[in-house]
Amino acid sequence: MNGITAYQDNAVTTQSKGRLIVMLYDGAIKFMRLAIKDLEEKNYEAKGRYINKAKDIINELNMVLDMDAGGEIASNLRKLYLFMNNRLSQANIKCDPQMIRDVIKLMEELNQSWKAIT
């Protein structure tokens, strides 16, 4: 493992849970923006890869929800994550950048909330 990789691994493993969530949101937003860029450039293969990366992050966020401790908030987040994933799947099939922008908007709003509390 080189020094840069070790530093990056350490930077992630030493973050608080809230900060990790913000990092995941930032990553998903970045991938969705790249998907829009590639879609506009008619690079459909790359668009699909970036959408799938964003969906993987959203799936991870969904999987780590603590439904017992999180109550109604966790339940609402789960519904939102499922909606986002479905919307991204549809955007991928229909090649619709507006559908991706809709998910970005939702994710940015959630991200701002997480940033405020971390």
Which characteristics define this entry?
118 residues; mainly alpha; Four Helix Bundle (Hemerythrin (Met), subunit A); 5 helices
What report would you give on this structure?
- With 118 residues, the chain is mainly α.
- The chain has one domain: Flagellar protein FliS (Four Helix Bundle (Hemerythrin (Met), subunit A), Up-down Bundle).
- The protein has helices at 3-13, 17-40, 44-63, 67-94, 97-117.
- The model has no long low-confidence stretch (mean pLDDT 90).
- Helices cover 88% and strands 0% of the residues.
- The chain contains five helices and no strands.
Mind sketching the topology for me?
Elements: H1 3-13, H2 17-40, H3 44-63, H4 67-94, H5 97-117
Short summary:
The chain is mainly alpha-helical.
Rg over CA atoms, rounded to whole Å, is: 15 Å
Sequence of secondary-structure elements = HHHHH
Q: Please identify the structural class as seen in this structure.
A: mainly alpha
Question: How many helical elements?
Answer: 5
**Overall pLDDT level:** 90
